[in-house]
Specification:
The chain is α+β, with helices and mostly antiparallel strands. It folds into two domains: 64 residues, no CATH class; 83 residues, no CATH class. The protein is built from four helices and eight strands; from the N terminus they run E-E-E-H-E-H-E-H-E-E-E-H. The strands form two sheets. A five-stranded antiparallel sheet has the order 4-5-6-7-8, with no helix packed on it. Strands 1-2-3 form a three-stranded antiparallel sheet, covered by helices on one side. It starts with 16 loop residues before the first strand and ends with a helix. The C terminus is likely disordered.
Length: 167
């Protein structure tokens, strides 16, 4: 990591800068090139990138660095919204809630809704959306979503689409 071309025999050190959110979430840069990314704790999220873009954490870090004006090139990744959790249907309680929707030991997807501005009472009442498991992120926005508490079918609209529609 510290040596140019990764070869300590050359004795030639390189200057690497770090941008850190927490101890295990950081990115290392050499000039404006990302050398290494760490995303500890993000493993529960499904990769939103298409299969031809395997390193979605690097793209996510590029977005963070542009957002914080560390990098000033490129545009936001199209897959930025939604962040999707893969949830196994492995308990009788969860299966009971989703009866008729999924089979035991199946998976569902749940988008992480941006509701940080809500107070604790409102947050407890926020809708929990789920949809059938889909491996390809291109299918997530057009999928049928259901509110877990009511079973009502709803259309998911990404924050990016809501922002564009309000302009």
């Amino acid at each position: 990591m510290n040596y140019k071309d990764g070869d300590p025999k050359t004795g030639s050190l390189r200057t690497v800068h770090g941008y850190t959110i927490s101890s295990k979430r950081y990115v290392l840069l050499e000039r404006s090139e990302i050398v290494e990314v760490k995303g500890h704790g993000l493993g529960y999220l499904m990769s939103p990138a298409s299969e031809d873009e395997p390193d979605w954490m690097k793209t996510a870090w590029e977005y963070v660095l542009r957002f914080d004006h560390v990098l000033c090139d490129g545009s936001d990744p199209a897959w930025l919204d939604p962040a999707m959790m893969k949830i196994p249907v492995s308990s009788p309680a969860l299966l009971g809630r989703l009866k008729g929707y999924v089979k035991p030991f199946d998976f569902v997807l749940a988008p992480i809704l941006r509701t940080d501005a809500l107070d604790p009472e409102e947050r407890a009442e926020k809708p929990i959306l789920i949809t059938c498991f889909r491996k390809h992120s291109e299918e997530w926005l057009n999928a049928a979503y259901y509110i877990v508490r009511t079973g009502k079918e709803v259309a998911y609209q990404s924050a990016t689409a809501r922002t564009a529609a309000s302009r």
